[in-house]
């Protein structure tokens, strides 16, 4: 599995951002980010510069938009034609979602608990969702140093409650990047996992041009498929610094090394009375120069629909930790969390998306 | 087209669409839009509205009741354009005075460049919030 450091919520001068796409990308590259989603408010016109900027810098820019409506902000990714937010009312959001899905795109609820109108218009998510199958992801961490922000903590708890209800929704972070200043607090990184599409991710971009002289139509590229697939599958892990991932497998007493490993976002069947084993990897090397994690004892936690299953104090170093779950019958999902001091604050430092568990008899 | 209007808080979360003809091929469509006031200066009203929002959205932690961190409140109206054939974009930003243009080679930020077809055009004002007692706007569109 290859993990792509990404930032999925950005703005430029095409809406209310204070930088051009070129400036945004230079700032992203300086932070070791390989992929951004351009999600200007209610317009995709910033994507007119996309192919040039990608060719010049090597970064990948996912076409996106932030539906900045009266009752909530919704991120869309990977759609080629503008979908009009203006005609939908507070009870209609799922029709809008259907339109995005009809183009093969994804939708995510942005900063669901940010204070709303008239302070930040439409920022608080007020749309009722009748069918959670339609929501692809929730931006549970928002803005800089998200883990210490109450709105992100509320979003994280909300996401957890939805997982407990049986919904499978991907969690992401989003800087909601409008400007870059010299002494910005640290931002989280959303890592997107690609496996089958490694070749695709590293293939050269297909340069496509539209025949029409102007358009609000955006050409998708192979790398977009990698991003959308990762998001759709939940192959996503979020961190302030070190890369935290894990796999799960059913213990095989004789040939455990050959047991199939399931990765973040996947579903594993754990038959009754079998032991589930997690292999948790902390990588402190990738993007190492882009964050500061002081030497300390970190708290590694395995969380689930049954609450915390496992805790261990670990050092700041690249390592793999094993965790056996002997009573897995009641588990429907597990994820891993990392806590410690970061930027002089004690908080959650990283969390993974879930591996989902079923139990055949 | 040169229109103006006065709205109040009852217009919040509505759209006002002006549909108008462009009868001749225009190499450049220009739009001037402004609204005033931008900011609610009555601190008593601002405090009332902010505290109401803090309560509504669960920001009424008794330990943290600093309504002033959310002041001042602003009106927000955004402008979008649809030509007879397609959506041309939107300018979602706080500026109360905006100048936009659309031509085959260039367009102002938020909009797609391209030919300007003859026919019925639409400019939509999306009223995200009116917090002042009244808000006056003026919209002018012309081609050349």
UniProtKB/TrEMBL annotation, chain A:
GO terms for molecular function: 5'-3' DNA exonuclease activity; 5'-3' RNA exonuclease activity. Residues 6-71 form the Polymerase/histidinol phosphatase N-terminal domain. NCBIfam families: CehA_McbA_metalo (NF038032). InterPro entries: PHP_dom, PHP_domain, Pol/His_phosphatase_N, Pol/histidinol_Pase-like. PANTHER family: EXONUCLEASE (PTHR42924), POLYMERASE_HISTIDINOL PHOSPHATASE N-TERMINAL DOMAIN-CONTAINING PROTEIN (PTHR42924:SF3). This is Polymerase/histidinol phosphatase N-terminal domain-containing protein. It holds the Pfam family PHP. SMART domains: POLIIIAc. Transmembrane segments: none annotated.
UniProtKB/TrEMBL annotation, chain B:
It comes from the Bacteria. This is Uncharacterized protein.
């Amino acid at each position: 599995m290859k993990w792509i450091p990404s930032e999925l919520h950005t703005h430029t001068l095409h809406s209310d951002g204070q930088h051009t796409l070129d400036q945004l990308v230079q700032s992203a590259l300086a932070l070791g980010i390989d992929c951004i989603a351009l999600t200007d408010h209610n317009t995709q016109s910033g994507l007119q510069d996309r192919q040039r900027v990608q060719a010049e810098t090597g970064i990948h820019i996912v076409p996106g938009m932030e539906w900045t409506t009266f009752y909530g902000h919704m991120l869309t990714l990977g759609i080629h034609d503008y979908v009009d937010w203006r005609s939908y009312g507070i009870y209609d959001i799922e029709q809008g979602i259907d339109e995005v899905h009809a183009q093969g795109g994804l939708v995510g609820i942005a900063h669901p608990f940010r204070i709303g109108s008239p302070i930040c218009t439409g920022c608080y998510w007020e749309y009722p969702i009748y069918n959670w199958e339609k929501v692809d992801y929730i931006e549970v961490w928002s803005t800089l140093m998200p883990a210490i922000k109450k709105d992100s903590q509320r979003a994280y708890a909300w996401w957890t409650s939805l997982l407990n209800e049986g919904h499978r929704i991907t969690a992401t972070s989003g800087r909601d990047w409008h400007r870059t200043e010299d002494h910005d607090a640290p931002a989280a990184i959303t890592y997107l996992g690609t496996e089958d599409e490694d070749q695709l991710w590293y293939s050269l971009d297909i340069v496509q041009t539209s025949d029409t002289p102007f358009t609000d139509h955006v050409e998708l590229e192979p790398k977009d498929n990698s991003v959308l697939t990762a998001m759709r599958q939940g192959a996503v892990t979020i961190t302030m610094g070190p890369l935290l991932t894990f796999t799960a497998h059913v213990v095989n007493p004789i040939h455990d090394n050959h047991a199939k490993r399931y990765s973040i976002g996947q579903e594993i069947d754990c038959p009754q009375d079998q032991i589930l084993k997690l292999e948790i990897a902390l990588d402190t090397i990738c993007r190492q120069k882009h964050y500061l994690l002081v030497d300390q004892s970190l708290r590694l936690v395995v969380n689930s629909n049954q609450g915390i299953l496992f805790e261990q104090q670990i050092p700041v170093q690249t390592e793999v930790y094993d965790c056996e779950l002997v009573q897995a019958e009641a588990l429907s999902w597990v994820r891993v969390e990392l806590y410690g001091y970061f930027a002089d604050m004690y908080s959650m430092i990283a969390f993974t998306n879930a591996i989902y568990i079923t139990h055949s008899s | 087209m040169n229109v103006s209007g006065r709205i109040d808080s009852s217009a919040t979360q509505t759209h006002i669409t002006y549909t108008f003809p462009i009868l001749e091929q225009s190499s450049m469509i220009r739009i001037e839009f402004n609204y005033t006031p931008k900011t609610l200066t009555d601190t008593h009203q601002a405090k009332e509205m902010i505290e109401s929002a803090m309560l509504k959205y669960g920001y009424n932690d008794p330990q943290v009741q600093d309504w002033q961190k959310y002041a001042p409140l602003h009106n927000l109206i955004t402008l979008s354009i649809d030509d007879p054939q397609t959506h041309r974009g939107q300018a979602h930003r706080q500026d109360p005075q905006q100048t936009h243009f659309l031509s085959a080679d260039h367009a102002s930020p938020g909009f797609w460049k391209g030919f300007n077809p003859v026919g019925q055009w639409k400019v939509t004002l999306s009223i995200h919030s009116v917090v002042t007692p009244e808000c006056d706007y003026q919209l002018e569109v012309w081609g050349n």
